[in-house]
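Try it yourself: sequence plus NDP, in.
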Amino acid sequence: MVLIDGKKVSAEIRSRLMKETAELKSKTGRAPGLATVLVGEDPASAVYVRNKNKICNEIGFQSFGQNLPAETTEAQLLDIIKELNENDKVNGILVQLPLPDHIDSEKILLSIDPKKDVDGFHPINVGKLAIGNALLTPCTPTGIIVLLDYYGIEIAGKHAVVMGRSNIVGKPVAHLLLQRHATVTICHSRTTNLEQVTRQADILIAAVGRPHFVSSDMVKEGAVVIDVGINRVDGKLTGDVDFDPVAEKAGFITPVPGGVGPMTIALLMENTLKAFKASL
Ligand code: NDP
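Structure, out:
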């Protein structure tokens, strides 16, 4: 069994981005800019945003943090996004979700310039992903493909089973796998005989949000198991996969933490650099 080290791969990506950013800076006199927008005081969201800004600065990007009070109105937020859309120094805009209930998230996502949509959630970019020609694709799903490639795991012709059909993980990762010529099955809470389906997977992606949900009975001998889940159990981070028994059966497996998680932020930075280069 090979343990897939997302921390290592993510660090390598970040150092490549740092080098490329320095080169681009000396050529163009400009640095990529990422604007993070946080509304309210949700502690987990605040940690995510702080971390994104920190890594942004480490790589040499300009970070534009907007920490707004929970009472911010939808109209005020739309105005702020309009300003960021028009600001040439900003190449990527990330609105941290979830937004407070009085703000319509869909309306906000639609207001972001698709060229600056580094999360890849704007319907234009979702459509481009479905067609197969998107520049900016969602970070966590793209990070999964990068991990598979890094470890030399063949995707073409393999049966990939995706557990979960969210717009953030399940659906986009299924599209990316299809684009890479996998045969893709998507499962969800209404799938019947789930075990029978997952046992067929050469590549199994678990994005369900339930701790230890994937047992070793659900996994084929030698399968590649990618655990996207981030669940907090007794204060500890736990994936969707029952790690120890599944690891005994799997050919490759990602740990939680240290697997898919660190890739998300690296791919966010990669998207910001892509958006910057496309703007030159
Ligand atoms: P959602 O809650 O939006 O989606 C969960 C999906 O799992 C749904 O499609 C749901 O089906 C399906 N599901 C739930 N229960 C079952 C079941 N019993 N059998 C089969 N399918 C089931 O979650 P997300 O996609 O946003 O996130 C999934 C996990 O990944 C979470 O733990 C989240 O924290 C983590 N995550 C990690 C990231 C990272 O950077 N590593 C980034 C984003 C998410 P249905 O549609 O029918 O309800």
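One thing you can check immediately is this: The radius of gyration is 19 Å.
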